[in-house]
Design a protein that fits this description.
This protein is mostly beta strands. 12% of the residues lie in helices and 43% in strands. The protein contains one helix and 19 strands. It has one helix at residues 3-44, and strands spanning 49-50, 53-58, 66-72, 76-81, 94-104, 107-116, 118-123, 126-131, 138-146, 149-159, 164-174, 184-190, 197-214, 222-223, 227-238, 246-254, 260-269, 338-340, 346-348. The strands form four sheets. Strands 1, 2, 3, 5, 7, 8 and 10 form a seven-stranded mixed sheet that branches.
Amino acid sequence: MDQTTEASVSKKHLLGLIPVLGLVAAIIIGMAFVLFYANAQQDNCSQINTGSFYGCYYGNKNLGNLRYTRTDSYPLNFDWGLGSPGSPLGTDNFSVKWRGNFPFETANYEFSITVDDGARLYIDGQLVIDRWFDQAATTYKAVRSMTSGNHIIELEYFETKGRAVAKMSWVKVGTSTDTTPPVISGVGASSITPWAASINWNTNEPSDGQVEFCTTQTKCGMNAPAVSALSTSHTINLSNLTAGTTYFYWVRSKDVAGNQSEFGPSSFVTDVTPPTPLPSTPTPTPTPNQFPFPGPNAHNIPGLIEAENFDNGAEGAAYHDTAAGNSGGKYRTTDVDIESSTEHGYNIG
């Protein structure tokens, strides 16, 4: 065979391969489209409903081959028996993923699932129950502390064959996630009088306060007015107590979650009643020093002291004076007798 004939045969072979290559390319493109479509369907299951579940139903046991989606209400309560969840799924070898965003209070909740066959429960992406295996209808429960607000609940489920059951619900079992009572410290009595005292203590978290007291170490139901305001430093005043008496007391504190602590008994003794004070004697006012005019020399007593009340004199004007005029003739011109005294003064007479 010459070179021309050989080249012609090679071209024929290549031309014969074109349909085959085209078929292979079509298959590859088709498979890529199927994969792209499947992935697109898978992406659609990222939706999350609020207040209900967004359910993704798959045509195998491994959460693949998404066949359809729908909204399912809470609680999940499916018992398909030997049947199918719905066309186009069969009665066996299928799986479902439910996701929803639901409101919760700050409390403990008990989550319950009943499944035939396997299931996994997630709360906010955290795996809580993992029972991913074939089994007859079985119930599983888990208690979790939830905070106030919305949380994402997700249940993955598969069915192999036979009966198909998928149920889920939850119930609040506690009012608070805090179960630790406050710690009481620094208990003591202060400002003690015969009739009153103050009871003081501290807590490691904001709490209310109450004091029960008695004259015996056994509680007798006497309670001081409680303080409802939450604080870490507490003082409650006791009044109308008996002087010179031993009192026993118990302090109590309760936090916002309702957890309560008690400490006691402790004790104190009221003061004895002080005696009634005697009336005080007033302090006399000091008398200032006095000196005789013109002083300062004093005259001995007893002696003769004479004083007269007078006006301008004359008989019958002020007192009996038989002598007319000023007999003494000293410094007055009125009719009053004034004479010099040998003791540096004057005599009135």
